[in-house]
Amino acid sequence: MKVGLLVTCLVDMMRPRIGFAALKLLEAAGCEVVVPETQTCCGQPGYNSGDRRAAQALALKLVREFAGCDYVVAPSGSCAGMVRAHYPELFHEFPEHLAEVQRLASRTYELTDFLVNVAKLKEVPGKFSGTITYHDSCAGLRELGVQGQPRGLLARIPGLKLTEMKEAQSCCGFGGTFSIKYGDLSAAIADKKCNHIQASGADAVVLGDLGCMMNIEGRLRRRGDGKTRVLHVAEVLAGMTDESRE
Q1: Which of the chain's ends, N or C, has fewer CB atoms near its CB within 10 Å?
Q2: How far apart are CA 155 and CA 145, in angstroms?
Q3: Cα 79–156–160 angle (5° rounding)?
Q4: 63-80 pLDDT, tens per residue?
C-alpha cells in the first residue's frame, strides 16, 4: 500500500528524528512510503485562532499533495485529528471541495493507530532498557481514540517496562495557542503533569505529540529535573532514542 507520511511542521523544524523513526516503522510494516517535499502545515494554528481562510488554503494544499496515496499517516494525534475530525467542517461551505477533503480525512491516521489497525505491524524494531510512563495527548485520545495502540506496541519491546502515572489522560497544558494565550494556567497544568510523571518513578515519559513533548520537557527542565527523558513513541518503537540510534 502507498502511504503518505505527513511529517508535521513541528517535527520538521524541531525534531526531525521523529519523522525518520515514523518512516522506519512504516517501511517495517511493508508500506511504500512517500513524503511530499512541498508539504508544510496542516492549518491547525490558523483554524484554532479563527483564521479559516488561511486554514482552508493550507488544508486544500495538503489534500492535493497527498491525493495519490492510499493512506496518510502522521506521527501526531493533533495533526491527524485536524485532518480527520476538522477538515470536513472546515470546508462545509465549499461543496466543490468537500468530496476530496472527506476522502482524505477518512484515510488519515495517527501513526500507532495505523500500525496496529491497518498495517498490522507484527514485529517492533526498537530496543529499550528501562521504565517508561505514557502520557495520552488530548487530540489523539479524544478525537481519534488513540490509547491502547501505543501501549500495545511498546509492550512488544524487550526490556521495556511500562508503569502508568496518575491521571495519564489529563492535559499537559500545551493546547497549541492555549499555552500562549493563558501562560500561567498552562504552566500550572504542566506542573501537575510533571508531578505525576516524577511520582511514577519512570526513567522516561513517552508520548505521541511533539507539542506536548516540548511543553513537558521544558517544564521538567525549568523545575530542575534534568534526568527524566521525554521521548516520542515513534523514536522508542524504531530504536532511535539517543543511546540506540541506528
Answers
A1: C
A2: 19
A3: 90
A4: 999 999 999 999 999 999
